[in-house]
Design brief:
The chain is mainly α and 244 residues long. It has two domains: 136 residues, no CATH class; 81 residues, no CATH class. The chain has eight helices and no strands.
């Protein structure tokens, strides 16, 4: 079983953007989730996130995986209250709807933007925004650890399949019995990655005083994207505070 990496290497408009801009756009959107006055803003953000995902040629598999992981939370916040006998579109339900739409948009935007950056670009983007060298490398190599963990999990699943053990939702009893057989070996393998990851971090200069990367001037589209994000946040804040 092959584990796809997040970065697809496909040419796109967003791949040409500066890594600092991509990180800044993502962080500004996270702020927008809490600034936005109601769910309509987040519904618009989902549309924008979908457009970014399409134009960035984001990997569909990663989008589906992240949405699947968060689906229980979305169901708990939105669907379950709608099934209640005393359902009403009140402030509590609107908060859940706003948060759920915000998470969906965050997944679309995050996966789309991160899929256009290599690991080193992720690190350089954070360092360009002023994050300390060591902290930036920890974030960057967290992605490497995720890839390695998924690869280990895939190898364990392949070994299980050769032994006649499969995970199928159609057989819930067998599924529950085989899950520990999958995750315990995978967990032990992941734990053994700690030494290798530490060595990799030290090889790449973790903990050393290294000068930040050269700052390259942002082009027109970089500045336009940041300006649009700042304008959206300012408009949302004004609407929340009731300013004209």
């Amino acid at each position: 079983m092959k584990v796809p990496v997040l970065n697809t290497g496909r040419p796109s408009f967003w791949r040409d953007r500066d890594p600092r801009v991509k990180w800044l756009l993502f962080l500004l959107f996270l702020a927008l989730i809490y600034i936005a006055p109601d769910w309509r803003w987040m519904a618009g953000a989902v549309v924008v996130g979908g457009a970014i995902a399409v134009t960035a040629r984001a990997p569909v598999g990663w989008l589906a995986l992240m949405l699947l992981i968060h689906s229980p939370t979305i169901i708990a916040l939105v669907v379950i209250p709608m099934l209640g006998k005393d359902f009403a579109f009140n402030a509590e339900f609107e908060f859940g709807l706003r948060l759920s739409l915000g998470w969906i948009a965050a997944i679309l935007i995050g996966v789309a933007l991160f899929s256009t950056m290599e690991i080193d670009e992720l690190v350089d983007g954070l360092r360009g925004l002023g994050l300390p060298h060591g902290a930036a490398f920890v974030v960057g190599y967290a992605f490497v650890l995720i890839y390695l963990s998924l690869s280990d999990l895939a190898q364990v699943m392949d070994s299980m399949r050769l032994k006649g053990m499969t995970l199928s939702a159609r057989r819930p009893v067998s599924f529950l019995r085989n899950v520990p057989r999958l995750f315990i070996p995978a967990l032990l393998t992941i734990m053994r990655r700690g030494g290798a990851m530490t060595a990799a971090l030290e090889t790449r200069g973790f903990g050393k005083a290294i000068a930040p990367p050269d700052r390259i001037a942002l082009d027109f589209w970089d500045r336009a994207a940041v300006a649009a994000a700042l304008l959206a946040n300012a408009a949302a804040l004004a609407a929340r505070l009731g300013w004209p």
